[in-house]
UniProtKB/TrEMBL annotation:
Its EC number is 3.2.2.n1. It catalyses: 9-ribosyl-trans-zeatin 5'-phosphate + H2O = trans-zeatin + D-ribose 5-phosphate; N(6)-(dimethylallyl)adenosine 5'-phosphate + H2O = N(6)-dimethylallyladenine + D-ribose 5-phosphate. One of its GO terms (cellular component) is cytosol. One of its GO terms (molecular function) is hydrolase activity. SUPFAM superfamilies: MCP/YpsA-like. This is Cytokinin riboside 5'-monophosphate phosphoribohydrolase. GO terms for biological process: cytokinin biosynthetic process. Keywords: Cytokinin biosynthesis, Hydrolase. Residues 1-20 are annotated as: Disordered. It comes from Psychromicrobium silvestre. InterPro entries: LOG, LOG_fam, LOG_family_nucleotidases. Residues 1-11 have a biased composition (Polar residues). Belongs to the LOG family. The lineage of its organism: Bacteria, Bacillati, Actinomycetota, Actinomycetes, Micrococcales.
Length: 248
């Protein structure tokens, strides 16, 4: 039987694929680090070929879990967005409106804006999906995820965000959000995906980035002016869902 201290201060935990590790076992490096960091201990040449089988299994598991979710939209945003804040509430409304429009809602499964969108999907009686990732600082799936899949490798997880979504809605976020945003923009720019609307919420937040692309990248000939048409920037959940539905 657990003590009051254990209930108030749960043991640290970390996922390693489908396995959950707690307390002392939760410490250690991640699968991505072992793959990408050549300084990691171990026989590099003998372990990598076997690692390919684990990567293959991760794709098979993701494809199998998500194949029948129907039309879906991936929603991105900061894990640090606090409940009750304006962007958290916007995330809830985005999830709800997407569900009411017939879309499953896919997020990274964590806290903040991801949790908000998953909550909105549940409120709207839609399917709420979370794609988790093994991290040194475990976040865990938020309580509003109906269908959760945990991944070891970022690249496998990122494939699922695009493969099973008809578009992206992006709330303000940090490096992870920017990574997903720019990768999606490149996929559209290079015609790897078509009819894939990307809608950003928050002109005050995203405006400086859009201006930098226009005034620096376009001005210097590094991207085409038409590449800015890949994204739309709005200020409300209602506009975001309308834009996305119109672009699908």
């Amino acid at each position: 039987m657990s003590s009051p201290t254990e209930k108030n201060n749960p043991a640290p935990s970390r996922h390693r694929g489908p396995v959950e590790l707690r307390r002392g076992l939760a410490k250690g490096s991640t699968a991505d680090q072992h793959l990408l960091d050549t300084r990691s201990p171990g026989d590099f040449t003998s372990t990598d070929p076997w690692r390919v089988l684990r990567i293959q299994a991760e794709f098979v598991e993701g494809f199998g879990a998500l194949a029948n979710i129907g039309p879906a939209v991936s929603v991105f945003g900061s894990a640090r967005t606090t409940p009750g804040s304006a962007f958290y509430e916007t995330g809830v409304e985005v999830g709800r409106r997407l569900a009411e429009a017939g879309f499953a809602v896919i997020t990274g499964g964590g806290p903040g804006s991801m949790e908000a969108a998953n909550k909105g999907a549940v409120d709207g009686k839609g399917l709420s999906v979370g794609l988790g990732i093994e991290l040194p600082f475990e976040q865990g799936m938020n309580q509003w995820v109906d269908l959760g899949v945990n991944f070891r490798y970022f690249f496998a997880r990122k494939t699922m965000f695009v493969k099973y979504a008809q578009g992206f809605i992006v709330l303000p976020g940090g490096l992870g959000t920017l990574d997903e945003l720019f990768e999606a923009m490149v996929l559209v720019q290079t015609h790897k995906v078509t009819s894939f609307p990307i809608v950003l919420i928050g002109t005050e937040f995203w405006g400086p980035m859009v201006n930098w692309i226009r005034e620096t990248l376009v001005a210097d000939g590094l991207v085409s002016a038409g590449d800015l048409d890949i994204i739309s920037v709005v200020d409300s959940a209602e506009e975001a869902v309308q834009k996305l539905v119109a672009g699908v």
